[in-house]
Amino acid sequence: MQDNRFKKALLDSQTFAVTWELIPGRGARESAQDRALSQAGQAAAGDVVHALTLTDNPGGTPALSASHLGSELANKGVEPLVHFTCKDKNRNALESELYALDRCGIRNLLVMSGDYPVSGFQGRPAPVFDFDPIHVLQLISEMNRGLSIVGPKGIVRHQQTDFFAGAVVSPFKATQAEQLTQYSKLKKKIAAGAKFVVTQLGYDARKFHELLLFMKQHDLHVPLVGNIYILPFGAAKMMNRNELPGSVVTDQLLAELDRERNEPDKGLEARILRAARLYAVLKGMGYSGVHLGGHNIPYAQVEEIIRRGEALAPEWQTLVPFFDYPIPGGFYFYDRDPDTGLNLGTPVSSAGRSPASPIDLSYRLSRFFHALLFEPGSRLYKPMRRLARQLDGSRWESVFHKVERVIKAGLFDCRDCGDCALADVAYLCPMSQCPKNQRNGPCGGSFQGWCEVHPGVKQCIYVRAYTRLKRYAQESTLENRIVPPCNWDLFQRSSWINYYLGKDHWSQKQD
Ligand code: SF4
Questions:
Q1: For the chain, what is the domain count?
Q2: Model-wide pTM > 0.70
Q3: Taking CB atoms and a 6 Å cutoff, what residues make up the pocket around ligand 1?
Q4: Dihedral angle, C-alpha 43, 46, 50, 51, nearest 10 °
Q5: Do 396 and 286 belong to one domain?
Q6: Is the domain of 58 the same as that of 194?
Q7: Which residue out of 168, 181, 443 has the highest number of ligand 1 atoms within 8 Å of its CB and is therefore the one to mutate?
Q8: pLDDT digits (tens, 9 = 90+) for 401-449
Q9: Are 84 and 150 in a shared domain?
């Protein structure tokens, strides 16, 4: 198999890696697919792009499979970077897809939760989210080591794969809780095997710099790729209204784009110049590459942005003021450096301050009863474990389970998965209260503290969890351990019995 051009570029400190995003589009033989294949041909001939990235059902709507289009691109001699999301496939479908990708020679994957599914044939599809990105990265890491499968004849070790998988993070969050839980999850993604990191969309140089500094200071030594979207007014308006989750365009930037679109060229030169300047800033700052995207961008524009970005890179510090679009009142991890407009290396004092909100009664009670009944070493732990052993398999088990159901459904909107993650997320159930069932930290779609799926109605559970834990100076527990995916073998069984008998994911913690 040929060298992995993208991996080589990203790991080579002398090369600034460039990827270009193509959108497979809905359909199999439509103009969108013809366009993507023709763009790929141009990129192969031009030889300045190190990988073509392919989105996976973007916006939560169906499209041609990114994996399939990726295999067609690979045949054209272009390195594909396939977006690999958790929204439409359970763990078995993800594993099957990885086998298919391996067979096709596709090695580069960008792993993410994915946009919440919004439309499909005959109505809205069921969201899957059986795994979160951390579980996918763990699976890929295992496959790269040679996945061991227990079969009827013992353990079988599969051939090693050669995936090069990365993850996504947003440094552009407005609140302290959102931002710090994003960074906590980033640590887990890298621990799970992410080999590179791509940012979400934003236009704030200080935030790009914050992420770079944060990763250096926390020993997260993987290449960082900055996202550059060639931004027209229409897309900016949607991002400004939070209609494209995870992408941040402030009112100030939107007003500038509004002025630019009245230019004779409808703002084209301004768009290209903005992208070239951001390219230069990211390269100068120390990013390892950029991810170029935009709707219907011709290949000639990609080449122009790279050429002009390279020419501007030596003077990148003078360009920082062109990306001064803070979210009003938004959180920054570091103090501002007045000389550069970027960051000093010292965390802002508010990073250690407690949030003002009071601790709610249900959280206090949950902590109290957890400490009383479920902490190994507490007075009631051993008696409860004895009781669980007696109940397990007896005719009283279903009665006990019903009592548990009534209590937990009323208090936590319990879905009876039997593999309880309440204590992992400050007694907020990720299976019932997070539409994407994220067990290890927030997805990238939260907006000013609100959940991507219920903006203005429900806060992201990780914002609530962070706020609760911070009151006890325990917010770092959110990054302490990787919470495994739910084991559906335990579905509709008593999670309390499962816990005491060491059948659920907590067994790793018990004696
Ligand atoms: S609760 Fe948070 S993690 Fe879950 S879908 Fe909403 S924004 Fe994403």
A1: 2
A2: yes
A3: 434-436, 438, 442-443, 445-446, 451-453, 460-462
A4: 0
A5: no
A6: yes
A7: 443
A8: 999 999 999 999 999 999 999 999 999 999 999 999 999 999 999 999 9
A9: yes
